Amino acid sequence: MSSSNPDFAQLSILLQQVAERVGINADRLTAAPSPMLALPFVREFIRMCGIGDSLGFHERNGGNASYHLLPEEADLARAAAVNEPGPWIPIGTSVPELGGHLFLVTGSGKFMRNVPYDPEASICLAEVNPAGTDYRILWGLRDGGRPTSEFPTHLMNHEVKSRVTQGACRVIYHAHPPQLIALTYVLPLEDRAFTRALWNTMTECPVIFPEGIGVVRWMVPGGRDIAVETSKLMERYNNVVWAHHGLFCAADSFDNAMGQMETIEKAARIWMLVHAVTDKPLQGITDDGYRAIGRDFRVEIPERFL
Ligand code: 13P
Ligand code: ZN
pTM (2 decimals)? Predict the structure, then answer.
């Protein structure tokens, strides 16, 4: 007696037909998940994007992220990325120290919310050419597209941070955290003003970003100029605010990148809560208090901020 249930081959044909009828890429319904998605750093990257979305840091396509692969991870990723590489495309800036390196990066116009749901369409693996001027896509962005419009800033930040941390910094994460953005309308757009305001909201802040926080004045995003300004500040800081726009965090791990984003946004929120009640808070953390934190937590609090 024949069964009325289609077998897998029939199911695949049916899915192809349905895909054609509704006008979507049939591979999306029938292809096996890529081996790339089993790699631990790819999984962590995807997880970070989902957490950022759940915390309200990413309206629509707001924000982006990149991960600088270690050499052994790059070997794994090259083996897992079975597609034909895409054409070489100018980065829009040059990052000679990153020549030949591989990066996982979110796609321009892609929604962070969709990264866990459909990673192969939302993120890609990009290779930088030996001269550090062009990139090509080795995997991902299945339905087309290109890396984030902030790729020049991501790569220039990676270049600086890789140098100043002897390769320890791997993650650059950009988001649009609302209360920090609001703060860029009320505080002077200076490193010192933001550092002091945010440190003074929670005792852990000077422990988490003892070097302070950098501020870039309002600039048009998505190009080389803002990338140059941001990467200059990344020489000194791990977190850089973009006025009326958002925050860039640089870290050695996905947890720390997200931890910095969350801490700084929470600090901005506390600042707002305090200043919603009074213009003149009665007390706060003193300069000697910061020095004592530096001593006890073995972090360097720059004297220029005190
Ligand atoms: P992309 O969609 O190109 O990543 O742009 C989002 C963004 O936040 C620009 O700063
Ligand atoms: Zn942005």
Answer: 0.93
